[in-house]
Write a structure and sequence with these properties.
By secondary structure, the protein is an alpha/beta fold. It contains seven helices and nine strands; from the N terminus they run H-E-H-E-E-H-E-H-E-E-H-E-E-E-H-H. The protein is about 25% helix and about 25% strand.
């Protein structure tokens, strides 16, 4: 064998060896934060973590607080750099009366610096202050959390089924999904109405609307219930849904599909057909 052929053969073997040695995709490091008022978080922490893990390559760290009040805090947020180990955080806490600004700054700044986020249900009613029941503008002093979310909500009506209508069926998060009606759920209002919300937060984008009862009162019994937002100078991706009060909803395969797609989208691991990118499918056990 000539010297040239030996060099080619060596290069080919090295290349094949490199392919064989290529490491699989590392699981996404997910922080799931739950606790506070009014929900069965003790069970929901596992419904969510197990459901997402069955759909994507993730490593979920659960931060659960048994505090049943609205003023509970999470020790992990006490450090300014709490978000650095994670690829994404799922906010599922219900802490409406937590107003300590340095603590809130730690949470807000992590997302301002680019940490992607998924916000579920009562997270929309957390960390609010000032006249939150009236429409706020993005430059309002107390609008920090709403700016991140891309939507302002102040309350909800009774627990009744919600008819879900997919208003953007081409988005990677929702492509191929069909409308459905939930079991008993809470329909969170849109303080700015439906159209008004997306004038105040133009980087937010509606995906699903929900209706309860007869008639149509936009913003009240007809509201946006799932959306995306692009936040801050680092263009942080956010996915939010106000659905998810009861266990029957959270363990619904359609809900878990939606949440998982939202998580993959905010981390850039979802293709245009709503499928995980190679390496981010669920790991078979």
């Amino acid at each position: 064998m000539t010297k040239k052929l030996k060099m080619i053969a060596f290069a080919t073997l090295a290349s094949l060896s490199g392919l064989q040695a290529a490491e699989p995709a590392k699981p996404l490091k997910v922080l799931l934060v739950l606790g506070g008022c009014c929900h069965d978080y003790a069970k929901q922490q596992y419904l969510l973590s197990d459901g997402i893990s069955a759909r994507a390559n993730v490593d979920v760290q659960i931060e659960y607080s048994p505090d049943k009040g609205t003023k509970g805090k999470f020790p992990i947020y006490e450090k300014a750099d709490w978000g650095k180990p994670f690829d994404v955080v799922i906010h599922d806490e219900c802490c409406a009366d937590v107003k300590d600004q340095p603590y809130l700054d730690n949470i807000f700044n992590a997302h301002k610096e680019g940490l992607p986020m998924v916000a579920l249900h009562c997270a929309m009613h957390s960390y609010r202050s000032g006249p939150f029941q009236s429409p706020m503008k993005p430059d309002a002093p107390q609008a920090g959390w709403f700016n991140i979310l891309g939507l302002q909500s102040s309350g909800h009506g009774p627990q009744k089924p919600i008819a879900l209508s997919f208003v953007d069926k081409k988005h990677p998060i929702t492509v191929g999904m069909e409308d459905w009606t939930t079991e008993k759920e809470e329909l969170y209002n849109n303080v700015h109405g439906i159209e008004g919300n997306f004038k105040n937060w133009p980087d937010a984008h509606p995906l699903i609307e929900g209706k309860q009862d007869a008639g149509d009162q936009p913003g009240k019994n007809h509201a946006v219930v799932a959306w995306t937002n692009i936040y801050g100078p680092k263009k942080t991706k956010v996915f939010g849904t106000t659905i998810g009060h009861n266990n029957t909803t959270i363990q619904d395969a359609r809900y878990l599909d939606l949440i998982t797609r939202g998580l993959l989208w905010v981390t850039g691991k979802l293709d245009e057909n709503g499928k995980p990118l190679p390496g981010y499918e669920a790991v078979k056990k």
